[in-house]
Structure formats: structure tokens, C-alpha cells
Design goal:
With 100 residues, the protein is an alpha/beta fold. It has helices spanning 20-29, 39-43, 45-52, 87-94; strands spanning 5-9, 33-37, 57-61, 77-81. It is built from four helices and four strands, in the order E-H-E-H-H-E-E-H. It is a single-pass type II membrane protein.
Length: 100
């Protein structure tokens, strides 16, 4: 069985997950090895490619850091979390929002 790696774009100043530890705990309970990637790691191309090449799932808040998904291997799932109040942007730019 292939290893399941989830990369969580972990920010501490803006658009952070207030329940990040819970998110990690649930993902690990589902069998994922969670890699918390800080914005500092996302600017170093060598470190970024090392982390993303092991990735099965990329999770992050809607922001510029997720543009790095262009470096993801084929078949990786991207989960982009939209903050409250930004629904209009997703409707305008992407044609709608998936609400769970």
C-alpha cells in the first residue's frame, strides 16, 4: 500500500487554521503522515519540491501559497479552504464553492 502523505500549509499570521492540531490528529487517525509546511519552506524551491513530491493530499487556506500546486505530481488531491467572506470570489473566479 502506498504511503499517504498530507502536506498542510501551516500559517501562523494570516488565514491560519485555529483547529490545526485537531485537523492533524484526524488526518493521522485516517492513516496520513502529516507534513506541516510553513511559508518559509514554501519559498525554498529545493525544500518545496522535496516536500511536494511526497504528497498525496495538499491542504491549505485560499492564498498565494497554494499556487505552488503547479509543482505537484499527477494525481495529488488539493483541498483549498475558503475563509468566511470570500465566497463571492470563488463564485466569480471558479464558478462556485463546494460546501461540506
Amino acid at each position: 500500500m502506498p504511503e499517504l502523505n498530507m502536506v498542510l500549509v501551516s500559517c501562523k499570521r494570516t488565514r491560519m487554521f485555529v483547529n490545526e492540531d485537531d485537523l492533524v490528529r484526524v488526518a493521522e487517525g485516517l492513516g496520513y503522515h502529516v507534513i506541516r509546511a510553513s511559508p518559509d519552506q514554501m519559498v525554498n524551491l529545493r525544500e518545496l519540491s522535496r516536500v511536494l513530491n511526497k504528497c498525496s493530499v495538499l491542504v491549505g487556506a485560499h492564498k498565494a501559497g497554494l499556487t505552488n500546486n503547479v509543482f505537484l505530481p499527477e494525481g495529488v488531491v488539493v483541498v483549498q479552504v475558503v475563509g468566511w467572506g470570500l465566497e463571492w470570489a470563488f463564485e466569480a473566479y471558479y464558478g462556485g464553492v463546494c460546501v461540506l
